[in-house]
Structures
1.
Amino acid sequence: MGLPIFKKRIGIDLGTAYTLVYVKGKGIVLNEPSVISVYKNSNRVVDVGRGAKKMIGRAPYYIDVIRPLRYGVISELSYAVLMLKEFLERADVKPGFFSSLETIVCVPSAVSTVDKKAVLDLSYELGSRKAFLIAEPIAAAIGAGMEIFEAIGSFIMDIGGGTSESAIISLGGLVVNEITSVAGDRMNEEIIRFFKSEYKILIGEQMAESIKINLGIVENPTEKFFAKGRDLVTGLPKGIEISASEIRVALLPLVDEIVRVLKETLVKANPEILSDISERGLVLSGGGSLIKGLDTYIRDKLEIPVIFAPDPLFSVINGIATVFKDLSKYLSVLTQMES
């Protein structure tokens, strides 16, 4: 008689900005920035997550700080594997001698076959015997509590660090979906560019992130933030107070691209679906959706209700958790890959 094999099931929201890990029976065990730092000469891991993120722009010459994902896909597979292995070890999530690992990993719905294979390779490197992929907007909709199997159009946009994805879901499938690389990272880059061109000051990625979070796109000249960087003329440290109205001007072209994607999604939908959406509105999820003033701006442009998912930062991972609780119910929304 053979020894029993126990299944260990984990869900991974492998985002450009953050990685979240769910373990069935334990809940969400990890929520860390998708960043790894390694020694250049050996590729030995220095740190991952928050510790590695603090090194961005501060690391000595012999340490590389790497973000293994860009615009929603794995750009550095070997470093993504290293990072995730370190994450799982810290979270004490490893397949035991008498257990097999099953994973669900979230991917953008428009991801290419090559990128799907990269996620598959990563899952195998982690020790998975069976791997499932789930489309990001489907996972976010499930995590937001939307009834995706009903014959009703559900409209969601998930705004992450690397991509913003808009989707209309009905009867368990994607009716229409659109994706853009305009998301949190692009907004940070635009803020950095704005400071260079307008003030001749170079600010870092983390300073740009702080400005985006604190000011958003609110049209309020009295709301200000003190930004610090390097004077590009003198090379010396310099600080400047900037208003929310200025950042709004810098970010609006990018926000308008997000609105364009939402409109494109609606234009492609059938009238019956549009009737559902006019009543139910749009649900926003993902960390990028929490930018101040974004929900109001979208509502004014689309002229439909706009609401936040109950827990926008965790919509995707909560969706994966829900799937694991009733795998047979949700099997049709998964892409299965086995070793």
2.
Amino acid sequence: MDHTENLARRTGGRRRLLKGAAGLAVAAALPHGAWAQGKLTRIVLPFPAGGLNDTIVRQLSISMAATLERNVIVENRPGAAGLIGTRNVQNAAPDGASLLFNYIGLVGLPFTQKGANYDPIHDFAPVGMVAEGPAYIVVNGNVPARTLGEFIAWAKTVPNGVESATSGPGGGSHMWTLLLSKYAGISLLPVPYKGGSEQSMALISGDAKVLISNMSEAINSQVKAGKLRILAVASERQMGITGGVALAKDTVPGFVIEGWSGLFAPAATPPAMIATLSAAVRKAVEEPVFKEKCNSLYLEPRYQGPDEFRQTMLKTTAFWRRVVTELDISPQ
């Protein structure tokens, strides 16, 4: 064996040793026997496959499985604007076997649905934020508007209102549709779909003319193909991920919607287990492949630990309270 081959083998061995040590260090944070039996953790996504959060959580699960040395699967449980899957984890055993991946709608749903009789702050334990990103206003390519101002002017000429694809009453895209209608003085008609994938298909086909939501791989690809058009981004300021897209607030003052996505566990999950899971989340968010995936979806990868994430949730609660007050909405 020559010197070069010998060095390569020693280096590769060192790398494997370091990788193994990192995984053991994360696992060591848990007390012996704390994990549920079966060596399997499911991350429940309360939306259908194919949307933005589905893409992100699947990348997250791959990294977490490697770090925790444990099978981690994604389980889609859509329905009722996310309520079905959310309640499933709320009622699950706090043993690390069931986690929830959700976005700011987790906080907003109790403000809009009577059936959402959970407290997002007290019924769930934040594990970690993984990404943040604003909502975008995207239209079908046949809509005669290239700016938000032009869209508003056109919408005012449509006799029966403009169809806006939403995730259903109480969901984020539904609320943003109502909010833009109020702020811009136009008639947008919320049309409910089962999730991000169906919303994207409706927008691409022209069944819906506008979508106010985060981006997805399907939407991004159609924007690049010229079949869809981004009019504005609802962020407070220009960000690296927004790519110079016009700020919605410059045309519609106050229209700012900045969201997040993150991982949660049932409320009574042991702190040591939360710490272990959060460390695995942080490792995933710092990986180049995760960052690339987020950036391709106009998201900014950002890790927040349990305490900081809880503070973000409290701020989001204040945001939702303001929105439902302005729209005069009560739980239905």
3.
Amino acid sequence: MAEPASRAGRPAKGPDLDGAEKLAFYLAFVPYLRELGPVPVAEAAAHFGYPEAFIRESVLKIMTMGVPGETGMYLAQDLFDFDLAALEEDDELVLVQRVAIDDVPRISAREAAGLLAGLAVLGADPAIAAVADFTSLREKLARGAADAPAEPIVAPAAGGVPGFAVLRDAIAAGRRVAFDYRGADGASARREVDPIRLESTDAEHHLRGWCFLRDDLRTFRLDRISGLEVLDAAVEHGVPDLDASEIGFDPGPEHGVVTIECDAAGLPLMSGYRPSAARRIAGSVRVRMEVAIGSDAALRRILAEVAGAVVVAPDSAREAVRAWARDSLGRYREHAG
């Protein structure tokens, strides 16, 4: 297949990346194209934070990569391939042949049975079962096993959770609810609530919603709710009011909004934290963004998952990271000694 001469064939003046950085980019770039299908060059450049010319040149380099065949030589079917006509004429990235990355290791029947048993235990939790498609996931795991795994048997939980099904249906229908709620001090009050999410912590089940009595987000234990009824009024508050709590933590007074810096190649790993638009740091391959953080655990999770990630601000978050690093180093020295 001939190279396009006018645009993709010109040498690109891209970022000055070393070998490890280029490899990290290629490993993120190919799955990105595989997942999204045809992608405009401009969109890919904006996503990864690199010049469009660098993206086009990368395509030509990736087309020289692959896995040698049985003869030990690289033939056409052993290399990645792109639709160069689409690149030249439409400035669009179309991956038409991929190699190696589809060779997924298959898990054993014993391993699959263990995973299925774990899913069965999780599926017994009504809060998790309400938001996860365990049936589809179990079928995919069974298909991915080398042999057919045994179907695990998990004893069902004793009895249902009072009010759970009613609240789940109210959330799905977007309807407000009312109930009597008994606080920790034993006092009871009638509440009108826009239900947003059901949660479970060990054996306790909670409703997360907007309380009109308190005019704020509140968490209610289901075993303290009585007189539950679904109202005709439609909800006025929903998931957007939860802010970062949708990914497992609430923005709190500890840190609030934290500025994170990382390599541009790590941006896909940050997407689950709903960051602000990434800003490229002049003269480097790094970017900065803001993320709502309410716990030290969330900070540690980002630093562990995103290569090269550092906390820039505020000082409270930086000090929390220092304390974590000092504690980890101390434990390591104790173990090594």
4.
Amino acid sequence: MTVSTTPDTSSHAANTVLARTREELAATLAGDSAPRAVVMTMGALHEGHFDLVREAARRVGAGGTVVVTIFVNPLQFAPGEDLDAYPRTLEADLDGLAAVLTGADGALSVGRLVVFAPTPEVMYPDGEPQVRIDPGPLATVLEGRTRPTHFAGVCQVVLSLMHLTAPRWAMFGRKDAQQLAVVKAMVRDLAVPVEIVPVDIRREADGLAMSSRNAYLSDVERERALALSRALEAGRAAARDGASPAAIRAAAQEVLEAEAGVEVDYVAVVDPDSFTDLAGAGLGLEPQNQQESGRAGTGQSENTPGQHAHGLLALAARVGTTRLIDNTLVELG
């Protein structure tokens, strides 16, 4: 079989390239010495993703290269999860990316936009990878307890995409706070020469955190889902009043549990880097099972070693058949 090494530049904005194979991506990036940032997504892009792209563009500057990967990674889905149902909207994603990075003069605000949209066969040409990444204790709590294989799959694809795209910066949203912490730890511990850049959560006008999975919600379910952001606000209010981590957690949990049609998975207050349980709820890591991780030197640490100036109030709940996550940083007295 002959593999194309010619990326697709037809029907896309000037200086925008769509690469579907490793060879096409390599050919596109060959000899490119401009500053480069990557945004890794599973597609179905929304304004939260576009915030990552805007930050990538800000980092690389007018002559730089922004790489956006669009890949629904089967390794991070467990049997029975929504792998097959996950929305795939490549053409709309390409249009959205071009719009975000195109100025009033019709030109890209960066030197080049490269979109890498591989299939599973491209990412894993020999089938199931023989060498796997163990994301460690950080991946065993909260999301890792509910989805025990998830972060191993995330690390597998993130590290592969870092090798294939060779960026200086990689943008990750704070909405997936545990993923952010796991990726920062992987980059630190495996000495990957990439700076991880956290980007704040984008919310709808009514407070709902933007997510591709919001498309699964009916009108009634979407209204119920607002309980997540209300729970976070209750936790922030408790924190402003000087409440303990346990009381902050209780304030958020009370709001979430009061909403009909919302099934609570967890409400936790943890250290945002190490995921040490700060509320004594048995949900995060115990102190002896982790090292204080203000040393996450390739990203931005919220706390200094041995101190907890900030906690991460993290929650997950199922609304109908849709599982949603959300979080906020809270100041601790």
